Amino acid sequence: xPADFYFAIEVILNGLMAxxxxxxxxxxxVLIFKASGIFNYAQGVMALFAAMTLVGIMxxxxxxxxxxxxxxxxxxxxxxxxxxxxxxxxxxxxxxxxFAWAVQRYIxxxxxxxxxxxxxxxxxxxxxxxxxxxDLMWGSDIKTLDVGLPQGASFWIxxxxxxxxxxxxxxxxxxxxxxxxxxxxxxxxxxxVAFSQYTKQGRAxxxxxxxxxxxxxxxxxxxxxxxxxxxLAGFVALVAGIMWGAKSGVQFSLSLIALKALxxxxxxxxxxxxxxxxxxLIIGVGEQLFEFLVGPLVGGATENWFAYVLALLVLVFRPxxxxxxxxxxxx
Amino acid sequence: xxxxxxxAALIAGAMASGPALADLVIPDLSYRTGPFAAxxxxxxxxxxxxxxxxxxxxxxxxGVPIRLVECETGYNTExxxxxxxxxxxxxxxxxxxxxxGITYQLIPRATADGIPLHTMGYGRTSAANGAxxxxxxxxxxxxxxxxxxxxNYLLDQNEGSLEGKTVALLYHxxxxxxxxxxxxxxxxAMHGFNFxxxxxxxxxxxxxxxxxxxxxxxxxxxxxxxxGVMNQVAVQEAANIRFPMENFIGIWWSGAxxxxxxxxxxxxxxxxxxxxxVGEYPVFDxxxxxxxxxxxxxxxxxxxxxxLYTRGMYAAMLAAEAIRTAxxxxxxxxxxxxxxxxxxxxxxxxxxxxxxxxxxGIGPVFSVTCEDHGGSGMGIVQQWNAEAGEWxxxxxxxxxxxxxxxxxxxxxxxxxxxxxxIEPGCT
Lengths: 331, 427
Hints:
- The complex is a heterodimer of chains A (about 325) and B (about 425).
- Chain A is mainly α and about 325 residues long.
- Chain A has a single domain (about 5-315), classed as ABC transporter involved in vitamin B12 uptake, BtuC, CATH 1.10.3470.
- Chain A has helices spanning about 5-35, 45-60, 65-70, 85-105, 115-140, 155-160, 175-200, 200-210, 210-215, 220-250, 260-270, 275-295, 295-300, 305-315.
- Chain A is globular and about 65 Å long.
- In chain A, about 50% of the residues are buried.
- With about 425 residues, chain B is of the alpha/beta class.
- Chain B folds into 2 domains: about 25-140 and about 280-375, Rossmann fold; about 145-275 and about 380-405, Response regulator (Rossmann fold, 3-Layer(aba) Sandwich).
- Chain B is built from 15 helices and 13 strands.
- Chain B has helices spanning about 1-15, 35-60, 75-85, 100-115, 145-155, 175-180, 180-190, 210-215, 230-240, 255-260, 280-290, 305-330, 335-345, 350-355, 400-420; strands spanning about 25-30, 65-70, 115-120, 135, 165-170, 195-200, 220-225, 250, 270-275, 350, 365, 380-385, 390-395.
- Chain B has a 7-stranded mixed sheet with strand order 6-5-7-8-9-12-13, sandwiched between helices. A two-stranded parallel sheet of chain B has the order 1-2. In chain B, strands 3-4 form a two-stranded parallel sheet.
- In chain B, helix 2 packs across helix 11 (about 280-290) and helix 12 (about 305-330) crosses helix 13.
- The radius of gyration of chain B is 22 Å and the shape is globular.
- The chains are: A mainly alpha (about 325), B alpha/beta (about 425).
- Chains A and B meet through helix 1, helix 5, helix 10 and helix 12 of A and helix 2, strand 6, helix 8 and helix 9 of B.
């Protein structure tokens, strides 16, 4: 086999890995949309905020230090301690739960019964608010995130596959971080599916997703379920923030990863957890393969627009996405 | 009746008090928020802190206080234009747009308004031709100089020949990132190296396919024209595929501390160009004493000495020197934007000048003329020492190849002149 064949396989493998990272972001959108019908524009900013909070806690950074210093003329920046990664992740999860409660208590409780577009607009406002609060809390500098995840090529895979394609082939390149991300995504999806299928809260969540009114009539607290869902989405955002933040450092651009999740959602459907995963994988492989095969002919940098073209093509034939629930309305 | 008398008295009093010297107004089109804030904050801090020092220590320039007017652009072109329109009426002397996109939009506006732009190391490269771009200055170096400096450095590393070598350009898929392509194509033809282009879509968070391509094609050198998150991801991806860091060279907008620190020790050996030197300059002590300790700093003082803080401060030094030159040329301390333009066009930076700033050797020696708004066109190569956490200068100032750049500047600027009905000239 010529080296080009193996290069194409390598591109597909890396596309799958990139797709897993897209899926991690898309999962958060799906959770909230499925349970409450809200398209959460702030999901990307939640990933940024969660990652910033994690780094801040790990480094013992004083939140709002710049604000305090500017008002009171003090010079405080750090508490002077370091928090182990695992404990910091737990604390950050708690922060995201508090955030979920606050979002529910102060925003969406007041918007019950409003049109979906109003709820969507509210999440746009939430995104900008959270961006500003994140900056004010932790500063706008780029933060190094080190929770001990491995990075760089997997030597083992490279060595085991180097013989395949002759002298021009150097073995498959797979980033160890991507392998970890794939493992985490599999566990996360399995836990989420198990949670929604086999726990009381999960079943309540599904009931709310199916019919709010019916769920209310059997005594399910909408308020509690929505806080639960936003907390889960916050945790998923934290996981996505860790994986993406390990690559680039924790910085504002993390919030833009939401743009990567949109074509995944269009393709996989807004209401399906497996759809988010499969959609992510299709987008990941599709964009990488297109860049590999067609990119050189059109000047490259095709990934961003190709993902949307692919999603639009699916929408033309299947408006609800590959795994979304078909909308049937009687008139 | 009483009110009318009082108003008349106030007006008469104001007229009798005579003309007061206005402030020297310097707008700062900064970006402290958004995806590029990590680069915008230190630059703006350095820019503002130096003017604050001049106010606190010297009472301004020529006895006239400087008034900084900060406006947040978020590195967004529309907001940048709004900032310009909102601040120009305050008597703005010079704009430092700090964005190639904003610069392109401001060139016709600032030219019509008679306000000079200083786009150091960015913006429209052919603005170096002052006979066409009367109000635009891009000293001390531009992107095409940067491309040539990088190639000259590589020539030096390869005993004067790049014959048969492959140089890849990894660039931000924008007007900024595409700027060096014509120069590198010309240099490739001249020196016989293969030149490949690899585009990265903004913001550059995902670069898997680009680095797989680099891994497949194994270029000898990778040059990078990146900004924002693209830089940090590229450095990490280069480390991931074990690309030799010493063969990876970024432009001066890809060579700050925050571009390399997220990759940790993996970034060790990465190189970048710089249009000015970083170091511990005496002026920093003065800034600490007169500005930071006095609570007048734009930031919290933590950026002092960093690459972009130093560059912002250097930009302010050049602006302040142009103001001094304009004041001397026109015999008045209260200068207008047109006089400022004259001062910029007559700017001369010598070793003694930089010594007087408290920053000996911070930049190259150069002078500006009507024909040449581009300055020396020189730059250094610096390398990241991850263990020490600092950039180390590897070279003295390297000259760019003007035999290649000048014809390109002339071609592009003359095309602009003919499109816009400008009669080039230096009268």
